[in-house]
């Protein structure tokens, strides 16, 4: 007996029409129909049986349309973005779903959802709402994820679904070919004396080009690097030096990160997943697991990666280590927290070294700060130290 499926739309062409309004083609030059698409989804919700992916697309799109500081306050814009993003993530990784009990991070891994989404959702829910820059970027990435994981695969346009799958396979093959050639040193160069430098430039250019043509390539690149054991020898033994691998791959990976910041986030997340959640890598004598550990500590703590380190989700890596504290997870967590503590102590030492002189200057000037050249310019425009601070709460009238 055929299975009956109830949908909020009458036929698939209606769903395809709404999709074209949410995601217009690059050649479309008509009016913006996204607001109409949100209204249609709202009407569908009255009928029920609206998939979470469709509702989340409408919420995120509506938040983007709400982003107008001339009409709405910044606080309301941030709140709208946060609510839409949190509902999108929570609806996907809610721990109350059927099946084995899993954490939100584990559910996100199963669904292919970036782990940083779960971290940002936690921040928006339990802490101060993230900045508008972060929320805008997260909303755009969420809409891209929804396209790849729902809208591109609706049955009405099966041809598009097949093309997307073929593109992913071809992109992965292209990445694998370029990386293997560089790893084995078979890429041709015209200047033997500069062969190493030429190969680095050549492979970086090719990989950046592939990632520029396909959003999927940025996410697939870390997977290919690790699954092919290109960053780590598959037969590596415990205690072997990783300096050769760092020297070989650092220039390439850093160049890619400069052009595609999200690459380093995907790479660090993929490394920590291999290290923390792969039960086959829990042994303290596993040379490959040690290599993953060394790569993560190298990227997150070394001075050569300092300018790119903000693109890593450091707090998520620590959360993942705390979630499954095996041998390598504890090692990584201790190393990262120790490194963070050293930087904090260093800054504290700098402040303490400046303290006596600052106090001396303050005492010489009657506890009033010395005005620098910049401060004097501010004084010319009406800025300066207050003579007497009035600590009355806002709205309380003066006694005079």
From TrEMBL:
<dbReference type="Pfam" id="PF04031">
    <property type="entry name" value="Las1"/>
</dbReference>
<feature type="region of interest" description="Disordered">
    <location>
        <begin position="340"/>
        <end position="370"/>
    </location>
</feature>
<dbReference type="InterPro" id="IPR007174">
    <property type="entry name" value="Las1"/>
</dbReference>
<dbReference type="GO" id="GO:0000460">
    <property type="term" value="P:maturation of 5.8S rRNA"/>
</dbReference>
<feature type="compositionally biased region" description="Polar residues">
    <location>
        <begin position="347"/>
        <end position="366"/>
    </location>
</feature>
<dbReference type="GO" id="GO:0090730">
    <property type="term" value="C:Las1 complex"/>
</dbReference>
<dbReference type="GO" id="GO:0030687">
    <property type="term" value="C:preribosome, large subunit precursor"/>
</dbReference>
<dbReference type="GO" id="GO:0004519">
    <property type="term" value="F:endonuclease activity"/>
</dbReference>
<dbReference type="GO" id="GO:0000470">
    <property type="term" value="P:maturation of LSU-rRNA"/>
</dbReference>
<protein>
    <recommendedName>
        <fullName>Cell morphogenesis protein Las1</fullName>
    </recommendedName>
</protein>
